[in-house]
Design goal:
mainly beta, 6 helices, Jelly Rolls, 45 strands, about 775 residues, Neuraminidase, six-stranded antiparallel sheet, about 5% helix, 2 domains
């Protein structure tokens, strides 16, 4: 907490008058603001900023909004060389609720409040003595909900705070006294005896018009269960040693193989009263009711972008001596630091240097990374553990790497069993090529209604205290969705190699429609976690079905610090009004060579690509804002129904047990006449970053692209980082009857930020590279410097 500051209090009017006697009062015209004469200072929790506009005639001071939940302040102060008048016009803006952001001016450390609610304005004229410190202060109660912004114009002050010397003139001493007294009344200023501590973020005043005000929202609250004993340290594995032992195998690019496996498209729940478009609908189709038409993104030349071709189907198929299945989709995921980039696909892992050079001796199979026998022994035919749904993560605070996968158990013949597990690898050091602790948790949950279950579509995130894995409980026997679950793990326990790290779990019955694919947030390096309320982690989810009226669920897990010893976090959810969204249709491909499809009897024809559903693909928490992206059906400017995406930026608050959020920015992502698949966003602490996706359609082979993004701007262009050169020609796109099938794609892309402010991304695409018989997918890793 910041110490108190006391305002100067005058004991009587006579004392005030005496202070004015002998003061040479100089009045004149406002000058150009000399920023070099001011000093910006801030409290511990603060990220405020100052900038000039209008050719230096206007000062914009933005208050703290770092997302910590703690109070803070930002000061902008200079010292006057001579006695005179300190005067200015001011206007205050914020989209936070009243009395959580404050603006005022400072004279010798005494704070006089000007405003605490949006839209207030006025003028100030006060006398100052030579050597006095004067300036402005922005305060916030909790560093959330949006910053306050003080716009100062017509500033006049003694040298050196303005460049232009004011014209000579004089006021009567009594007039000056009356001005000083009256201004406190006319501007409704009040002297505060203390100040709140603050934090800050650069913001342009005009951007506030994008926001919706915070308002009361109905809350849902959930309690969970301590499940600490359910996840256990099972073994350790060194990835470099595994790579050194990896066998090589010579496989003809078009050699036949059997059997093969693919990740089945699992059923999603349907919200009552909503209808969906079938996954097999023929492209194109106009939706009704439609989402609003949005301008299409233009194609721009790459700028600030580098990248390299990464893991492919051939890489994962040949890993571990070729004792692997053919798998679609890759479900690619990356984690990045300043030294390494870790990529995982459904059954393959490699660590790269930022240059794109591999850091491991060979691509590892997932089974090798977890110290398991091969997924299939190609000599004996014996089946091992079949891992899928890859997620990887890097935590800068701990300097640790995480690898997450799940399984549905089978016997050595490949027959499905009724048990399932979650696998978690945590590096023992900051070297992702070295030794990992391997944790195992059974997820069958056979005593739970609707189960036995498996952990479908796991997603990961973290705050300063916990590592979070969410998934959908799915019953493979009845092919039915059961509910959603969130597993909360102590980061300290995982980093320390605890035998049974502290664990707490929530099971969320499907009631509101939002209990599906609940995505944890991640905080980029340099941004501040929410440290109040015992620590807080945000999550977000969409409706599992089309949401013609819009809506995103915001979830807040509080008291996450309790995960260190005695876990007792509380989960709260509110529904936030947003733009509407539709379950996407399938995506059309550009025609091209189909070496595998044409070899079939009857020959396969060009497949559509699976457009996915509305699940949140990525969620970033930076500067007290949440950034989310998800797929949606869109209507392009030609009136055609395409696959596109949506982004939503929220300003969440958690105050006195009440969770709320305002929409700061939102919009659709589309390319006219073509499709964007699986948009994933990441931003740096300044709210600048990128969205990655796959571009595909009549004009484009599947290509890896990125869309530069800034908090308050509307994305207008995309860059093609990995150019597609041919269509998808994998086994999941051929139903075997000579008709057009729907090939699996995704199921997600990934974007993360590093502590240099850059964003690393991975997306699926199809390039001209060696392939196997059954699939030709590739992944492309991109780096974008905003």
């Amino acid at each position: 907490m910041v110490g108190r500051r006391h305002a100067v209090v005058l004991s009587s009017p006579s004392v005030f008058t005496a202070c004015l006697l002998g003061l040479a009062v100089i009045s004149g015209n406002a000058g150009t603001i000399n920023l070099a004469s001011f000093t910006l200072s801030q409290s511990t929790f603060a990220n405020g900023s100052a900038m000039s506009t209008n050719e230096g005639l206007t000062l914009v001071l933005t208050g703290p909004n770092d997302g910590s939940g703690e109070p803070g302040y930002t000061d902008y102060v200079g010292t006057v060389a001579t006695s005179g008048i300190f005067q200015f016009d001011w206007a205050f803006s914020t989209f936070d609720v009243p009395n959580y952001e404050f603006a005022g001016y400072l004279i010798n450390g005494a704070f006089t409040e000007l405003a605490g609610a949006n839209g207030e304005s006025g003028s100030v004229t006060v006398p100052v003595f030579a050597g006095s410190s004067v300036g402005f202060e922005m305060q916030t109660v909790d560093n959330t909900g949006g910053p306050g912004i003080l716009t100062v114009s017509d500033l006049d002050a003694p040298d050196p705070l303005v460049f232009t010397a004011p014209e000579a003139g004089s006021f009567g001493l009594m007039a000056s006294a009356l001005t000083f007294v009256s201004i406190l009344t006319l501007c409704r200023c009040k002297v505060r005896l203390s100040r709140h501590s603050l934090g800050a973020l650069t913001l342009v005043v005009a951007c506030l018009t994008l926001s919706q005000p915070l308002k009361a929202q109905a809350q849902h609250q959930y309690t969970g269960t301590n499940v600490t004993a359910s996840i256990v340290l099972a073994s350790t594995v060194n990835l470099t040693q595994q790579g050194q032992m990896a066998q090589t195998v010579a496989l003809s690019p078009l050699a036949s193989e059997r059997p093969s496996r693919y990740l089945p498209k699992l059923m999603r729940p349907v919200t009552a009263g909503h209808s969906t478009f079938g996954r097999q609908d023929v492209f194109p189709r106009l939706a009704s009711p439609t989402v609003a038409t949005a301008p299409g993104l233009t194609i721009a030349s790459p700028s600030g972008t580098t990248g390299f071709n990464a893991l492919s189907h051939l890489d994962q198929r040949l890993a571990n001596g070729g004792n692997q299945f053919s798998i679609e989709p890759p479900s690619q995921s990356i984690a990045a630091s300043m030294k390494y980039v870790l990529e995982g696909v459904n059954d393959g892992i490699q660590v790269f240097y930022p240059s794109g050079q591999p850091a491991l001796p060979a691509v590892l199979s997932s089974n090798q990374a977890f110290g398991l026998p091969p997924a299939i022994d190609r000599t004996t035919g014996a089946n091992g553990v079949y891992l899928t749904d890859m997620r990887v993560y890097y935590d800068l605070d701990l300097d640790r790497w995480f690898i997450v996968q799940r399984d549905l158990d089978n016997d050595i013949y490949g027959n499905t069993l009724e048990t399932s597990h979650l696998w978690l690898a945590v590096s023992q050091t900051g070297d992702p090529t070295a030794t990992y602790d391997i944790y195992l948790m059974e997820t069958t949950n056979s005593g739970h209604g609707g189960c036995p279950c498996l952990a479908d579509y796991p997603q990961v995130g973290a705050d300063q205290y916990g590592f979070y894995i969410s998934w959908n409980e799915f019953n493979s026997l009845s092919s039915s969705f059961v509910d959603a679950t969130i597993l909360c793990l102590s980061k300290a326990g995982l980093a320390g190699g605890a035998l049974t790290p502290t664990a707490y779990q929530f099971f969320l019955p499907y009631a509101t429609g939002y209990e599906f694919a609940i995505t944890p947030s991640s905080t980029p390096p340099g941004a501040v976690n929410f440290v109040a309320s015992g620590g807080l982690e945000y999550f977000a989810s969409t409706l599992s079905d089309s949401a013609y009226n819009g809506g995103v669920a915001l979830w807040a897990l509080t008291d996450t610090s309790s995960l260190a010893i005695a876990p007792n976090p509380i989960l709260t959810m509110v529904e936030i009004s947003t733009l509407s969204y539709l379950v996407p249709n399938v995506a059309q491909q550009r025609p091209g060579p189909l070496p595998y499809g044409s070899s079939l009897t009857p020959p396969g024809v060009l497949a559509f690509l699976d457009g996915g559903d509305n699940r949140v693909q990525a969620l970033t928490y930076a500067g007290a804002r949440l950034y989310a992206t998800f797929p949606t059906g869109v209507v392009d400017q030609n009136g055609r129904f395409q696959v596109g995406g949506a982004f939503v930026v929220l300003a969440p608050t958690y105050r006195d047990g009440v969770l709320a959020a305002a929409v700061v920015n939102q919009g659709y992502l589309l390319v006219n006449g073509n499709n964007l698949l699986r948009p994933a966003i990441a931003v740096n602490p300044q709210g600048s970053g990128a969205i990655t996706a796959t571009l595909v359609g009549p004009d484009w082979y599947p290509s890896a692209v990125l869309i530069p993004f800034d908090t308050f701007s509307t994305p207008s262009a995309l860059q093609i980082a990995g150019m597609g050169t041919m269509p998808e020609d994998g086994f999941t796109g051929y139903p075997g009857d000579g008709t057009a099938g729907v090939a699996r794609w995704g199921d997600y892309n990934t974007a993360v930020a590093t502590n240099d402010g850059a964003v690393w991304m991975v997306a699926q695409y199809i390039g001209t590279f060696p392939r196997t018989t059954l699939a030709n997918w590739n992944t492309y890793i991109m780096r974008f410097q905003p």
